[in-house]
Amino acid sequence: MLKELIKKLIGHKSSKNTAKKRLQFTLVYDKLEMNDNILNELQSDIINVISRYFKIDKKSLGLKVKHDKNMSALVFNTPILCVKREKA
Amino acid sequence: MEGRIIVVTSGKGGVGKTTATASIGAALAMEGNRVAVIDMDIGLRNLDVVLGLENRIVFNIVDVVNKKCKIRQAAIKDRRIENLFLIPASQSDNKDILSTSGIKRTAKTLKKEFDYIIMDSPAGIEKGFENSVVAADEAIVICTPDVSSIRDADRVIGLLYARSITPKIVVNRIIPKMVAKGDMLNHQDIMEILSVELIGLVPMDEQVVISTNIGLPLVMQNDSKAGQAFKRIARRLNGEIDLPIEIPISKTGIWNKISQKFGLTK
């Protein structure tokens, strides 16, 4: 247990969290029958579109998977810094 | 009242479907129900050896479905547990030998003669799986806390929903020590991923190997932690829906208690 405390203090990631994340994405990919590349492209497209209208923090953009009984949803979260006055 | 047909399935092989079928079936019979456990793994039967009834096979489920014999003739009565019957699979046939209409007709008769009919589905999602779920009223999906098993369970859950069956989950082979370390998915993680109702948590137990070795149902061994867990699952199925689900834990030493306080373990 002391080992765990040290691991926790130095920010060691437990392997189950990796498993969980991998599973959540895999299940969405399985259902939609798509791969990582498509998702990455989608993400950059969305960033591009949003950046035309808003100034956003690209680094803190988060992609999450919401899982429900009937559906899976991809949720993009981005803090908006400010609205752009004129379209680029 | 008509009996309930419950299919035990998983997608992935080797997660404990047959052990679960045998244990839940035996436990339900010990509660006083008339129970038939049916091996649907045509060509690769194993429920008979797990229950220790392999020497008494005369007819099998293929004979019943193809009207070669009566259910009474194929159902082997367990001599240790009253009201427990096994209908074995055929070892020589192919999975395609069973017709959907034949299974449905057989299921109707079974429901009149038994309170519970537990179907042990083969691994996979092909014909053998289809045959096992075609007449099912309910489903129990067995998974273990690893990525491949959970992924396959998710797939099977989807297929069951498509047949208007809402499955319940059993998480099998939990190693509490690893869960505490954060190196094994805990049941909350698994429920979050699969989002279906949980019906039981079964710890990893060496007794499973021993009980299979000697062909004695796990639930007859009082010192088996897994056996106890399966007994509770059976009671929950049998109407005790409020029976709390016990979370398998390792020995609670002082360090465990302290670390749990500080949120180091879940």
Number of strands of chain A: 4
Choose one word for the global shape of chain A: flat
Rg over C-alpha atoms of chain B, rounded to the nearest angstrom: 18 Å
Distance between the termini of chain A: 56 Å
Low-confidence stretches of chain A: none
Which percent range describes the beta-strand content of chain A? Answer: 15-25%
Rg estimate of chain A, integer Å: 18 Å
Instruction: Look at the structure and name the CATH superfamily of chain B.
Output: P-loop containing nucleotide triphosphate hydrolases
Query: How would you sum up the global shape of chain B?
Result: globular
Helical proportion of chain A? Answer: 40-55%
Average pLDDT for all residues of chain A: 76
Q: What would you say this structure looks like, in words?
A:
- The complex is a heterodimer of chains A (88) and B (266).
- Chain A has 88 residues and is an alpha+beta fold.
- Chain A has one domain.
- Chain A has three helices and four strands.
- In chain A, the strands form two sheets. Chain A has a two-stranded antiparallel ribbon. Chain A has a two-stranded antiparallel ribbon with strand order 2-3.
- The model of chain A has no long low-confidence stretch (mean pLDDT 76).
- In chain B, β6, α7 and β7 form a beta-alpha-beta unit.
- In chain B, α1 crosses α11.
- Helix content of chain B is 40%, strand content 16%.
- Chain B is an alpha/beta fold and 266 residues long.
- The relative contact order of chain B is 0.18.
- Chain B has one domain: Rossmann fold.
- The radius of gyration of chain B is 18 Å and the shape is globular.
- In chain B, strands 3-4-2-5-1-6-7-8 form an eight-stranded mixed β-sheet, with helices on both faces.
- The model of chain B has no long low-confidence stretch (mean pLDDT 93).
- Chains A and B meet through α1 and α2 of A and α7, α9 and α12 of B.
